[in-house]
Recover the amino acids of this structure.
């Protein structure tokens, strides 16, 4: 699909197109978390608004809701007009809508800008994933996915830390962090020039055999999306519920949450850098299984007792496991996505990722209130262990089927000789 320098075999960090796509992927975490440190002061600055408490809290999750609604449409647009134009338009909209909170006059207008920010994230993420599928294959694609997960983990520290410093000066200043992606535009413009006209023409009028579309890509995409949504729904217990778990057990919530999520993101970032080596050695299905086992062990550790060694070890194992599972979702999706449908498949996976974030607190908070944190953490661990068992069983059945095919091929060769 693309004339990409990335195919030259140069390391990813020396390829400007790869660096641009890695940085574009980090906008996902920038969208939600950056303004979190400013929320208390922002609420106080609009104390005259009777809905200030509700609206300020909704500002964080509003982009996720827009992503869920907009990502499928963004995927179809990427398949029709091309990935690079959608990516550039998404980054421009991200900059304009994200930074608007620095000067808009009231919370309602800021909320509207946050909903537009979610549309921008949907455009960026679907186009970015499709471009990765176009530009990379084999080991390079696996390598990129690991680097992408690491970049998302490490950039969260930088964005939130920078925004936290600005929030100490003014609750409006953290919104200016959303203007930083304007620096990406010079790196993204070459992608627009390099997108082949012949590929664009093929995207405008994709032709798939009639009656086989669901079998070829939609059904596998939907199943992968379902697995993605369930996994992220469980993983999102960490950022959404860990502060309340720690507070309930007598910890100073802000400091303890920073320590726990710090262990999660740092461990996840380091493990993600080894994703290619691990997945090539074990295979994608076993890598999924290992990721689910690590996540399950992490939640089981949290369920035992609220002690620092268990909290830090549990968070680190959840982060390590998610760093193996999350790139695998995108790898799996791109494996079965036809080139002309990569945008649509990316839209399905993007929707699933953010839907998992939206559903997690809505579905699991009532369960926590009824049964407590330990019971929910144990149930989460059990679910993840079952997913791990299913992944390993799939790997074994696939290996057995491959062995049977090889035996039949040898028998056929022996018969011919």
């Amino acid at each position: 699909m693309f004339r990409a320098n990335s195919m030259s075999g140069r390391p990813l960090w020396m390829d400007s197109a790869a660096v641009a796509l890695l940085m574009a992927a980090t906008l996902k975490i920038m969208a939600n978390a950056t303004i979190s440190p400013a929320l208390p002061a922002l609420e106080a600055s609009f104390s005259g608004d009777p809905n200030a408490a509700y609206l300020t809290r909704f500002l964080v999750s509003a982009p996720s809701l827009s992503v869920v609604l907009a990502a499928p449409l963004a995927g179809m647009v990427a398949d029709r007009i091309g990935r690079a134009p959608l990516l550039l338009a998404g980054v421009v909209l991200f900059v304009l809508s994200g930074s608007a909170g620095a000067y808009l006059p009231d919370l309602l207008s800021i909320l509207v800008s946050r909903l537009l920010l979610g549309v921008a994230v949907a455009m960026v993420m679907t186009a970015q994933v499709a471009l990765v599928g176009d530009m990379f294959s084999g080991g390079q694609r696996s390598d990129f996915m690991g680097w992408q997960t690491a970049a998302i983990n490490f950039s969260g520290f930088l964005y939130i830390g920078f925004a936290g410093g600005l929030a100490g000066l003014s609750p409006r200043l953290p919104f200016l962090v959303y203007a930083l992606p304007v620096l990406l535009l010079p790196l993204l413009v070459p992608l627009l020039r390099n997108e082949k006209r012949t590929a664009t023409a093929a995207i405008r009028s994709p032709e798939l055999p009639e009656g086989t579309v669901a079998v070829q890509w939609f059904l596998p995409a939907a199943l992968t999306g379902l697995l993605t949504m369930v996994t992220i729904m469980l993983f999102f217990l960490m950022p959404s519920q860990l502060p309340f778990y720690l507070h309930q057990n007598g910890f100073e919530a802000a400091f303890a949450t920073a320590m726990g999520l710090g262990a999660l993101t740092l461990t996840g970032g380091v493990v993600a850098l080894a994703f290619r080596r691990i997945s090539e050695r074990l295979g994608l299905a076993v890598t999924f299984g290992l990721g689910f086992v690590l996540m399950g062990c992490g939640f089981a550790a949290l369920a035992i007792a609220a002690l620092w060694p268990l909290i830090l070890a549990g968070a680190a194992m959840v982060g390590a496991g998610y760093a193996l599972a999350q790139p695998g979702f995108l790898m799996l999706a791109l494996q079965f996505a036809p080139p002309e449908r990569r945008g649509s498949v990316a839209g399905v996976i993007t929707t699933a990722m953010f839907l998992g974030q939206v559903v997690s607190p809505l579905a699991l908070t009532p369960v926590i209130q009824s049964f407590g944190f330990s019971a929910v953490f144990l149930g989460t661990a059990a679910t993840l262990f079952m997913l791990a068992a299913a992944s390993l069983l799939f790997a074994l059945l696939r290996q057995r089927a491959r062995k049977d095919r090889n035996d039949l091929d040898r028998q056929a060769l022996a018969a011919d000789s």
Remarks:
- The two ends are 43 Å apart (CA to CA).
- The domain at 211-417 is CATH 1.20.1250.20 (Growth Hormone; Chain: A;).
